[in-house]
Amino acid sequence: MQAPPEKYAFVAALNPPGSKLNDALLVVDVDPSSRTYGQRVGEVKMPAFGDELHHFGWNACSSALCPYAPHPHVERRYLVVPGLRSSRIHIIDTKPNPRKPKIVKVIEPEEIFARTNYSRPHTVHCGPEGIYMSALGAPNGDGPGGIFMLDCETFEVLGQWEVNRGPQFLQYDFWWHLGFDTLLSSEWGTPNMIENGLQPDLLLGSKYGHQMHVWDLRRRRHLQALDLGKEQQMVLEMRPAHDPTKAYGFVGVVVSLKDLSASVWLWRRNNGAWDVKKVIEIPAEPADPEKLPPMLRDFKAVPPLVSDIDLSLDDRFLYVSCWGTGEFLQYDVSDPFNPKKTGSVRIGGIVNRTPHPTVWAAGWSSLTPAATGASRLTKTSSWRATTTGFIKFASKEAIPRAIPFAFREWPLAVAGGLWARSLSWHQSCHGMVVRCGAGVAGAKARSRIPCAAADGAGACAFDWDHRRRSACGPG
């Protein structure tokens, strides 16, 4: 659980539709003692146009030390950076100088298609046998989506992870309980269902993801489907307990067709099987129809639209980003079956557009939280805005404007509570920021770091390094 404080954040910057610039990986100084603190100090441009950088991750972490598949000599050094739109994967070396990262390998989409029959790589996790990556669909944009693997040393594409996928078809996030030999996955939609925006007929027909799936991790076989109900649409971000002896976790649901509420569900192992239960419900908020996008006017309400959740490293606090209402929530989940709301801040939102108290620049009142992370070392939480894929999917009629990105952090009270503070406002020539990783190269685990982007148009989520309680903890 201990590691040196982070000195650099690696920030994936993407460009809006219509731009002719390639995406890039930016390096931001996050060392408070540095003269360039909060400033961009490095950059590496992607070699091809149109990647749409999104999530990314490290080549190695504490999971590589698990007893049944140990890789004790693997160094946390390389960033694995997929393009969600291009299906291209970049391997970026952060040594010897993290201010000057270098692309050392590019895996072209044709190789991924041929070896996995998947496309649109999304989530990256370093695991016990190599690098696991989720993919949203097949090369033609349909399904199924799933998980494939890379070798953690050569970065060779190894192929599909699943041996028997059972009824699983849609894919989004995945996580594991290594001590229980269990992987769980969640659902969004195929590329054809999401890349050109939210499709009302699919949403109202309950065609987006509403299940979780339980897998035998070592045998790579589907064990159980957990259906949250067809009205629960888009079961997305998953956060397992960090304590490797605990078999539970949380998953966020974007919207309920019943009443436009959002929710957080608890999964757990119970008498040898797995079940799931709703433990947090966040209601829609009444709103003036004239201020709502056309799709929501008849409802006269704005949905919370939970876009991300994050669990503190001590498993005590859960953070929830409500992209629709602009609310950022903190819950005490010491008793995971009975979460207690302990803090809330608001910024942006589809209707209210609450301004940040320290920002005066015109247009910056439309910041809105979309993804979140928590730092153990600095006792802060953070949020981001969204990536292009999510913008096209969710905000086409909601928050169409865009501005440059900025870091953002929320200091945390030890006993619960949030208040806003600016780490730095840093404009990018790329205009949109996506996904970030941070940390001292060679550290052994993962957490997150402060960030924000603006107006539903950019995004950043930061992975930074801490040691976990166990080599077999999620991370």
What topology emerges from the helices and strands here?
Blueprint: E1 8-14, E2 24-29, E3 40-45, E4 57-58, E5 78-82, E6 89-93, E7 102-107, H1 109-116, E8 119-126, E9 131-137, E10 146-150, E11 157-160, E12 174-177, E13 182-185, H2 191-194, H3 200-204, E14 211-216, E15 221-227, E16 232-240, E17 248-256, E18 262-270, E19 273-282, E20 285-286, E21 301-302, E22 306-311, E23 317-322, E24 327-332, E25 340-346, E26 371-375, E27 380-384, H4 388-395, E28 407-411, E29 421-424, E30 432-438, E31 447-449, E32 462-464
Parallel strand pairs: 30-32
Antiparallel strand pairs: 1-2, 1-30, 2-3, 4-5, 5-6, 6-7, 8-9, 9-10, 10-11, 12-13, 13-14, 14-15, 16-17, 17-18, 18-19, 20-21, 22-23, 23-24, 24-25, 26-27, 27-28, 28-29, 31-32
Tell me what the structure shows.
The C terminus is likely disordered. By secondary structure, the chain is mainly beta. A hairpin with a 4-residue loop joins β8 and β9. The radius of gyration is 20 Å and the shape is globular. The strands form eight sheets. It has a six-stranded mixed sheet with strand order 3-2-1-30-32-31, with no helix packed on it. A four-stranded antiparallel sheet has the order 4-5-6-7. It has a four-stranded antiparallel sheet with strand order 8-9-10-11, with helices on one face. The chain is built from four helices and 32 strands. It starts with 7 loop residues before the first strand and ends in an 11-residue tail after the last strand.
